[in-house]
Amino acid sequence: MVQTFPLTLPGTLVDTHRIDLTRLYSQGWGVEADDVVAAPSGDVYALYRVHRHTWEVSEDEQDPARANFGYRIITRYSADGEVLASALCCPSYGDKTASAVANGSDINLCVLPDGTLAVSARPDRTTLIAPDLSRVLATYDSNDHRPFEEFTPGNGFAGSIGVTPSGRLLCSVSEYGVWGYGSSLANIVGFTDGALTPGSRPVIEAIASLDPEPAHQSDDDLKSHVHHQGRPVGRDHRPRPALTEPVADEDRLSRWRDSRLGRPVPLADDLFVVPVFAKIFRSGNRGRPFLFALVDDQGEMTGRLQGLDAYHDSPFTGFCFTLASDPRRGRVFHLNRYGLYAWNKAGVLRARLDTAAKPFKPLVHFTLTACSPEGDLLLVHRKQHLVLRVPAPDDLSGLAAAVENALRAYARQRTALKKAWAPVNWHWVDTSAPVHRL
């Protein structure tokens, strides 16, 4: 069933900070989605951020109606799209330690097999939250703030997590010194067969790396919870060859130096898709090489997702680097400014919906975040702050008709939501659901 529901702003937040919803984003505030995922129970979780920064306001301003602010918001929806609860976390002004949720870059969500919500960010900061968003169950934080603070090893876990059909956790892990930088970047892909719980941090078995020889590492950089061939990953020990080494000739400009590791997704219990993107320049990135590698649980690169042209299907336009997988049916999807693409388990491109075609032009305004456990596509409209759930057919030859039907339904459902919610400039304010501060 096609569903549309809003990314809501808690009414208490709007009132406390006297947010002017009519104000243009160019005037110092904004709302931006980070991730949307669905749980096996049918619940849907959305993670997004709201901020206000006005240059003439002092950093020590005490009046919340004038002060700058920033929060991450997590909202839980029922299976029929009703807002059940919201949580505010990760304040970017004031007492930043007031939140038990570990904040960081490239923040994302995952629903673990036991229903716990995991919020992960780089470098290796994972927070476990109760399914009803009422409390934080545990925080695994790497305590890595280099180069701004001296490093004292913490108990971090992963920068992203995905779940295979049998419950394995597919993880990306950061390392210090990748490509010689004095900070931590995602560099390792691995999986764990054990459960991640508030009292147990399982060992991740590393199967792939991006930079085979990060610089400036010491014994403090050894990953006690990330192993390869029975030893902790770090210093000169990690999986080889690196993902970029077999395809070094495809990047003639930089030979994959300064490339970035995207968020890996499971395609089966023993097969994963690992995205790699070449160095991003200040301009003119369309046509830069990228790799959607198929990697098995032994660390062998068995192939890649095929059928994309580096220029005409470039994910660099708009920086659309997300993959969404349906491991139950062995398929993976990607949406960028030029099309929506679907592959089967063998990496064969089975569907391409061109956004230049009239029925699919609205897709350029959406971001694909994930697939539900049933295989439905979860998309977010970047301007209208609406989540669209698109049922994907078993036969991918019917994907075009399914998406076209969903976009028509979206227009009707959006109109109904506008009548019911009366949004201001596509900002949807909710005053009924409880709001937790984590």
Itemize the secondary structure elements and their pairings.
Layout: E1 3-6, E2 8-10, H1 11-16, E3 29-38, E4 44-52, E5 69-77, E6 83-89, E7 105-111, E8 117-122, E9 125-129, E10 136-140, E11 160-163, E12 169-176, E13 184-192, E14 204-209, E15 223-228, E16 231-233, E17 260-261, E18 265-268, E19 271-277, E20 290-296, E21 301-304, E22 323-326, E23 331-336, E24 339-344, E25 349-354, E26 366-371, E27 377-381, E28 386-390, H2 399-421, E29 428-430, E30 435-437
Write structural notes for this entry:
- By secondary structure, the chain is mainly beta.
- It has two helices and 30 strands.
- The strands form seven sheets. It has a six-stranded mixed β-sheet with strand order 11-12-13-14-15-16, with no helix packed on it.
- The longest helix is centred in the C-terminal third of the chain and has 23 residues, at 399-421.
- The protein is globular and about 55 Å long.
Summarize the structure.
The protein has 438 residues and is mostly beta strands. It has helices at 11-16, 399-421; strands spanning 3-6, 8-10, 29-38, 44-52, 69-77, 83-89, 105-111, 117-122, 125-129, 136-140, 160-163, 169-176, 184-192, 204-209, 223-228, 231-233, 260-261, 265-268, 271-277, 290-296, 301-304, 323-326, 331-336, 339-344, 349-354, 366-371, 377-381, 386-390, 428-430, 435-437.
Distance between the termini: 33 Å
Figure out the total of helices: 2
Compute the CA-based radius of gyration. 21 Å
Tally the beta strands.
Answer: 30
Helix content: under 10%
What structural class do helix, strand and pairing data support?
A: mainly beta
Strand content: 35-45%
Overall pLDDT confidence: 94
**Spans where pLDDT lies below 50 across 5 or more residues:** none
Characterize the largest beta sheet: strand count, sense, and whether it forms a barrel. Answer: 6 strands, mixed
What would the principal axes of the Cα set say about the shape?
globular
| Physical arrangement of strands within the biggest beta sheet | 11-12-13-14-15-16
